[in-house]
Structure formats: structure tokens, C-alpha cells
Design brief:
Blueprint: H1 20-34, H2 38-48, H3 56-68, H4 72-84, H5 90-106, H6 110-123, H7 128-247, H8 250-253, H9 257-304, H10 307-339
Helix pairs in contact: 1-2, 2-3, 3-4, 3-5, 4-5, 5-6, 5-7, 6-7, 7-9, 9-10
């Protein structure tokens, strides 16, 4: 099958009219057609149709001239009028249908070209030109349909791909948003943990300060208590001595000078013992103050030392305190020995 259309564009000729002008004009149109001067042909035929616009041969030839100058819409109108003209012969109508189909193809109206070709074959089934062109039109329509289907398929595939990319982009965006939220929650948790540690550290520091304040207060109370105890003990002893003095018998009132001297001596020793206790209380206060200073120095020293060296500092400090206590016990024992009576009892 040839991939080309067959065209039949021939003048039909008109009967000789009584008008010599019409005959001469038509002969000039035929001469111009032979010279392929189709614009002149179209002009001369237009003049002829002024007096005979319903002439089927003039309509058909005008359609051929319009087709040759590529005025396809005019050609379509002329061929269509020829097929509807009652004066047109079947042969002329068959040629008009055939050329109307060709004009539809030139206008790229392939679907509309099928009916004119089928009409031409209905008049003359042996017209191979009309059959060939009809098959060509159907083949072109099939190809266009296939191309359209392929284009639709490609368009659908492109849309599916775009949707898939959009879905993937949306999924990635959601994943990024989820990761950002998770990172935000993690940062928030870390910040809360950091704040909690700082609060715990602050509370710990506050507790330590409170404990240090309580310890200092207790130490201050302990500093005051030994004097109070010593004073209370001294008052109790004086009251007991006063009671013994009031409760003594007349014999005691008449005690000898030797006994009074002994009592005075005992009172003197008691006074010395009280003074010794006051000295011991003062030494205790001084010792506690020294302990506070030493504890503070120990803490500052431990803060400056590395963690692995702090235990050694504590051991040395404990050892130093133990030596001081031992020395104090020796001094106290010596003082107690000097203040002891002849029978091994304290004078006070």
C-alpha cells in the first residue's frame, strides 16, 4: 500500500452558451489552467459564476481552482455544493465526493474525510483511487490513536512518577520533621537533665551550708556548755559546803584552829581546782576553734588536691589530731597528778 493520496482535479467543461462572452471567458480559464495559472483561473471562473452560480460544472471547476491555490475552505464549500446540486450527474458527484475527501485531508480533518470517500465508492465501487485514500485515512487514524494512547500512557507514567516523587519528598519531609522533633525532645531532655543536675548541685550546696551552719552552731553551744557545767558544778559544791556548815554540830563550831586551817587549805585547793577547770574549759574552746580552722583548711586543701591524693591528706590529718589528743591527755594526767591529795583523791 502506498503511503500517498491520489488526487483527481480536472476541469469538466461547460456547454457552449448563447453568450459569446461566456464562451470566451471560459476558454481563457481553460488556457490559464493548462499554464497552471490557477489564480487567473479562479478569477475568470468567479466572473462566470455571476451569471450562472448554480451551474454544477462551474461549481466543481471553481473548487478545483481554489484547491490549487490552497484555499481549502473555499474548495470544500464548492465541492460540497456540487454534491448537493440536482443538476449534477452521478459521475460529477462521484468526482466531487472524492475531491471533498481530499480537501478534508488537506484540512487535517481525517475523521470527516471518511464519509466523502465512502460516498464516492457507493456511487462507483470500482473507484480504486477513493478506496486507496480511504484506507490511507483509516491507517492514519489508527496511527494517531496509537500515538495518542502512547502519549496518554507516557503522560500517566510521568504523572505517576511525579506523584511518587512528591510522595517520596513528602515522606522525606515528614521524616525530617520527625527527626527534628525527636532532636528537639532529646535536647529538651538533656536541658532538663542539666537543669536538674544544677538544681541538685544547688540543693546539695545549700544542704552543705546548712549542715556547716548547724555544726558551727553546735560547736558554739559546746563552747558555752563547759563553762556552764563548770559553774553549775562549782555552785553545787558551794551549796553543799554551806549545807554542811549549817548542819554541823556544836562540836564543829568549836573545832580547833587546826581543823579551820585544814578547811581553809581545802577551800584553797578547791579554788585552785575551779581555776584549773576554767583553764581546761578555755583550752577546750581554743581547741574547738582550732578544730574549726583546721577543718576549713583541710577542706580547702582537699579541693586543691587531685581525688586520688585526698585520702592521703585525710590520713595525715587524722594522724596529726591523734598525736595532739595524746599529748593533751599526757598534759592533763600530769596536772591531775599534781592536784591529787595525799590519799590519792582530788582536793576539790
Amino acid at each position: 500500500m502506498k503511503n500517498a493520496f491520489v488526487f483527481s482535479l480536472l476541469f469538466m467543461g461547460v456547454p457552449v452558451s448563447a453568450s459569446m462572452r461566456t464562451e470566451w471567458e471560459y476558454s481563457q480559464a481553460i488556457r490559464c489552467a493548462q499554464d497552471a495559472q490557477w489564480a487567473d483561473v479562479q478569477h475568470r471562473l468567479s466572473n462566470l459564476m455571476i451569471d450562472d452560480s448554480d451551474n454544477p460544472e462551474l461549481l466543481y471547476d471553481s473548487g478545483v481552482a481554489a484547491y490549487r491555490v490552497k484555499e481549502y475552505q473555499k474548495a470544500e464549500a464548492y465541492f460540497h455544493q456540487t454534491t448537493r446540486n440536482e443538476r449534477a450527474t452521478s459521475a460529477l458527484k462521484e468526482k466531487a465526493y472524492f475531491n471533498l475527501g481530499n480537501t478534508k485531508v488537506a484540512l487535517n480533518s481525517l475523521n470527516e474525510a471518511i464519509d466523502p470517500y465512502e460516498a464516492a465508492l457507493a456511487i462507483d465501487p470500482s473507484d480504486e483511487r477513493a478506496r486507496h485514500n480511504l484506507e490511507q485515512v483509516r491507517e492514519l487514524l489508527k496511527q494517531q490513536e496509537q500515538q495518542q494512547n502512547q502519549q496518554n500512557k507516557d503522560q500517566q507514567s510521568k504523572q505517576d512518577q511525579q506523584q511518587q516523587q512528591q510522595s517520596s519528598s513528602d515522606g522525606q519531609q515528614k521524616q525530617n520533621d520527625s527527626n527534628d522533633k525527636q532532636d528537639g525532645r532529646q535536647e529538651k531532655q538533656e536541658q532538663q537533665q542539666k537543669n536538674g543536675k544544677e538544681e541538685q548541685k544547688g540543693e546539695s550546696t545549700t544542704e552543705e551550708r546548712k549542715e556547716q551552719g548547724a555544726d558551727k552552731q553546735q560547736e558554739g553551744e559546746r563552747k558555752d556548755n563547759p563553762n556552764d557545767k563548770s559553774n553549775d558544778k562549782r555552785r553545787d559544791q558551794e551549796q553543799e559546803q554551806c549545807g554542811d556548815s549549817h548542819d554541823s554540830s556544836p562540836q564543829k563550831n568549836s573545832e580547833s584552829d587546826d581543823e579551820r586551817q585544814a578547811r581553809d587549805s581545802d577551800a584553797h585547793h578547791t579554788k585552785e581546782g575551779d581555776e584549773s577547770q576554767e583553764m581546761q574549759a578555755g583550752e577546750l574552746d581554743e581547741q574547738e576553734g582550732t578544730e574549726d580552722i583546721r577543718a576549713k583548711q583541710q577542706k580547702e586543701l582537699e579541693e586543691e588536691l587531685a581525688p586520688q591524693d585526698r585520702w592521703m591528706a585525710r590520713v595525715l590529718q587524722q594522724r596529726e589530731r591523734a598525736d595532739e589528743k595524746a599529748n593533751k591527755r599526757i598534759v592533763k594526767a600530769t596536772i591531775d597528778k599534781e592536784l591529787a591529795g595525799k590519799d590519792g583523791q582530788n582536793c576539790w
